[in-house]
Amino acid sequence: MSRKNFEYCLGAVLSLTLSAPSTILAGACAELPGPDQNLSDNPKIAAPSPSVSAAIATMPLGPNTIADVAQTVAPSVVSLKIDKDVVANRMMMQNPALRYFFNGQAISPGQLPPMMRQHFQSQNMGSGFIVRPDGYIVTNNHVVKEASKIMVTLNDGRELEGKVVGTDPFSDIAIVKVEATELPVARFGDTKTLRPGDFVIAIGSPMGFDHTVTFGIISALGRSVDKVNKHISLIQTDAAINPGNSGGPLLNLSGDVIGVNVAILGNAQNLGFSIPVDIVRSVADAIIAHKPVERPWLGLVMDPSSEAKLKTLNLPTGTKGVFIANVPEGTPAQKAGIVAHDLVQKIDGVAVSSPKEVQRLVLTRRIGETLKIELLRANVAKTVECVIGHYPITENSNANDE
After folding, report:
1. Which whole number is the average pLDDT over 378-389?
2. Of the residues 49, 76, 127, 142, which is catalytic?
3. How many CA within 13 A on the CB side of residue 146?
4. What rounded mean pLDDT belongs to the chain?
5. Is residue 233 flagged as an active site residue?
6. Is the pLDDT of residue 230 over 50?
7. Catalytic residue among 172, 210, 256, 342
8. Of 269, 268, 229, whose CA–CA distance to 246 is shortest?
9. What would the CATH number be for the domain defined by 3-288?
10. Which pLDDT value is given to residue 108?
């Protein structure tokens, strides 16, 4: 499946600024280094607003539940309007047939003389939700990437300029700050008790229609969708999500945020994906506190086991485990003595049979903790202890790295 079939839920309008205005509606995807900013002494953001907690706690489940949850949580949901300066090739804009030239290579606008450049301003629409009463807002990294200006519209109609505090491209989470106080905040839930079939609510600004409420179920959990985010297992939902919903909350029937809406499958209906709130909470806390985002890592390059690999290792057919393709120098796994062609079978007593299972187990632990890894090497059982390290983000990070 090609990447083009996946769309980030980010609405975009592209307008010409040097000649007669024109508009092009498009899907847009999105790392913007956050500016230096003084933060309050309390970086935690998970505490709910007392008014929100009290209101939700008294809500009965019934015909008005969805409307009651939406009414209570809506004040903490915001719309984002993001300006971005764009430079395009004037000749290519006027004649798409000229997209490739000069020996068949696409020419960057920056390589062109000024008279051949066309300046545009794109205006993207996204969503977010307030997590601290002093103006901190969670959204997606791809929503605010390369923004030249961010305007935040609150539920009460106020429009405030937002500044990026920081972003985490790995998880596609960003924090935006507005100068305001005593704002209503959304409450974080957790994903431990979620099940496919649970009811969920999405609130956001699809196509610029702010505070649109949609309703559905969790279609699946732990989705591996490398075209959307190769690092994270996502929540799949059939609640209607469209361009402009990016960064908005996915809620349970208690009004708790259980995910951040991030993408849809563009050539299908009701296939939307959200980043689990457990990841969002830890990343947001770290960004607001100007601390590194902790991301447990072993440094294994893994492949699923196969009959061909088992035969190469002289292992019996049907042997379960995860094949180690490579162990880079200096990684925690290499320091623990794990080598290429090992077959990892258990981590802390839990059987594993796929790279994703290893990743999920590691991500539940903290940096500096020690894992007991049981493996087969040349058909001999071994046990090694590996101290968890911190994941180094690189552009070439592989989906099966852990």
Report:
1. 94
2. 142
3. 12
4. 79
5. no
6. yes
7. 172
8. 229
9. 2.40.10.120
10. 53
